[in-house]
């Protein structure tokens, strides 16, 4: 199972939000310093999110992506990617692949064009609250279920998705193991679990279900999961 330490960037700082709420933020310093720590722990792939972009709809972190990619780690990045130009700019900045969530729901033709042009470098971002996809920084709910979105993405040629249970994000209450496994079965996508992962036991549960990957956020910042030990146990 692949592990993706997360770096969420808001106003130039590495932060964690509780349930995706901008007003409930914990600051963890400079993004590049966090990236160095995760690389030194053995991480090969980082999940870097532009929270300012997710909330405001404009991409702001490409310079940070350049710096992080220059460390020799692969970067998977999302947030604020609402145009083909912003997707191209994020990839050109050094991201190995990008996660598209909001635009995949609000502009299906752009999503289709991005997948046609960039192939497996496009990852679907399936962020769900009460089973339905949330968009625009999780501030709005669409009428599409996670499974419906996933099947639509798969039909276009997408092979991988990040699945976040918004109700668990940043809360260290455990991942939505059943929902994650069901999404993988229903869509045929490689699913990266996100939200609520807090212990090695959580990772054991996900791995036992054959989940492709897991994003580690507050757990590695607060030390409830030792990243180096987790990488040693599950690979990378």
Automatic annotation (TrEMBL):
It is found in: Cytoplasm. GO terms for cellular component: cytoplasm. Its EC number is 5.3.1.16. GO terms for molecular function: 1-(5-phosphoribosyl)-5-[(5-phosphoribosylamino)methylideneamino]imidazole-4-carboxamide isomerase activity. The active site is at 8 (proton acceptor), 127 (proton donor). It comes from the Bacteria. GO terms for biological process: L-histidine biosynthetic process; L-tryptophan biosynthetic process. It is an enzyme of class 5 (isomerase). Keywords: Amino-acid biosynthesis, Cytoplasm, Histidine biosynthesis, Isomerase. It holds the Pfam family His_biosynth. Pathway: Amino-acid biosynthesis; L-histidine biosynthesis; L-histidine from 5-phospho-alpha-D-ribose 1-diphosphate: step 4/9. It catalyses: 1-(5-phospho-beta-D-ribosyl)-5-[(5-phospho-beta-D-ribosylamino)methylideneamino]imidazole-4-carboxamide = 5-[(5-phospho-1-deoxy-D-ribulos-1-ylimino)methylamino]-1-(5-phospho-beta-D-ribosyl)imidazole-4-carboxamide. Belongs to the HisA/HisF family. This is 1-(5-phosphoribosyl)-5-[(5-phosphoribosylamino)methylideneamino] imidazole-4-carboxamide isomerase. The gene is hisA.
């Amino acid at each position: 199972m692949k592990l993706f330490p997360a770096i969420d960037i808001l106003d130039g700082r590495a932060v964690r939000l509780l349930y995706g709420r901008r007003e409930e933020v914990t600051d963890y310093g400079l993004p590049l310093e966090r990236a160095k720590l995760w690389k030194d722990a053995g991480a090969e792939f980082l999940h870097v999110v532009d929270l300012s972009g997710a909330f405001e709809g404009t991409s702001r972190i490409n310079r940070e992506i350049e710096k992080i990619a220059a460390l020799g780690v692969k970067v998977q990045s999302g947030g604020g990617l609402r145009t083909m130009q912003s997707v191209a700019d994020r990839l050109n900045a050094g991201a190995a692949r990008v996660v598209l969530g909001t635009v995949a729901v609000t502009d299906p033709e752009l999503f289709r064009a991005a997948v046609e042009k960039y192939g497996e470098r496009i990852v679907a971002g399936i962020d769900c609250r009460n089973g339905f996809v949330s968009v625009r920084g999780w501030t709005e709910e669409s009428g599409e279920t996670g499974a419906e979105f996933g099947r639509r993405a798969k039909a276009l040629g997408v092979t991988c998705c990040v699945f976040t249970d918004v109700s668990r994000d940043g809360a260290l209450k455990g991942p939505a193991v059943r929902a994650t496994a069901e999404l993988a079965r229903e869509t045929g996508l490689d699913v990266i679990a996100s939200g609520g992962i807090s212990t090695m036991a959580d990772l054991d549960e996900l791995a036992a279900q054959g989940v492709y990957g897991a994003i580690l956020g507050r757990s590695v910042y607060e030390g409830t999961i030792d990243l180096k030990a987790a990488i040693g146990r599950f690979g990378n």
